[in-house]
Amino acid sequence: MNDTRPITDYGMLKRQLTALLDTRDWVTNTSQMAAFIFQQIPELNWAGFYIQREERVLRLGPFQGQPACNPIAFEEGVCGAAARTRQTQRVEDVHAFPGHIACDAASRSELVVPLIVDDRLWGVLDLDSPLPGRFSIEDQAGIEAMCQVLVAQSDLPTSI
């Protein structure tokens, strides 16, 4: 892990995100959150959402960064693993992850948080970094807390 990177104040980011998400509209809120995270969290090369729109398949949603892979089956990659297990995936070296999908060859580490609404997987938030080991346990907890804000302040449809 890069020990020289700046400390991110996730408490402050969570308060700012809470103020930013001033509508219940899920498209607006996920778009705002992807842009906010991409701008505020250092050393990312992609931030965005994949949404479950059909059985065991994720479809690309609002994002910031290079064009992305679409669709992603639950059996594929880090996003698929997060969707399948409903557990956050924090991967220090994506090239060592079985079944990794290389949408951007520059990506080296990944953090994927599943979003659960009414006990149903709505989708995942996916963050990529060009640095190996970019995401710490503190980053994971901070991003998970920000995802809770999104779920609480948005009308995320349980069927799309």
Describe the structure.
The chain is α+β, with helices and mostly antiparallel strands and 160 residues long. The protein has one domain (10-153): GAF domain (Beta-Lactamase, 2-Layer Sandwich). It is built from four helices and six strands. It has a six-stranded antiparallel beta sheet, with helices on both faces. Helix 1 runs parallel beside helix 4. The model has no long low-confidence stretch (mean pLDDT 93). Belongs to the free Met sulfoxide reductase family. It comes from Kushneria pakistanensis.
Percent of sequence in beta strands: 25-35%
The domain tally reads: 1
Number of helical elements: 4
So what's the CATH class? Alpha Beta
State the helicity in percent bands: 25-40%
Protein name: GAF domain-containing protein
Family: Belongs to the free Met sulfoxide reductase family.
Organism: Kushneria pakistanensis
Pfam family, one: GAF_2
Helix and strand arrangement:
Blueprint: H1 10-20, H2 26-40, E1 46-54, E2 57-65, E3 72-73, H3 77-85, E4 89-91, E5 109-117, E6 120-129, H4 137-153
Antiparallel strand pairs: 1-2, 1-6, 2-3, 4-5, 5-6
Helix pairs in contact: 1-4
Summarize the structure.
This protein is α+β, with helices and mostly antiparallel strands and 160 residues long.
Question: What would the keywords be for this entry?
Answer:
FRMsr_CS; 6 strands; GAF; 4 helices; Phosphatase_reg/MetRdx; alpha+beta; Beta-Lactamase; six-stranded antiparallel β-sheet; 160 residues; GAF domain-containing protein
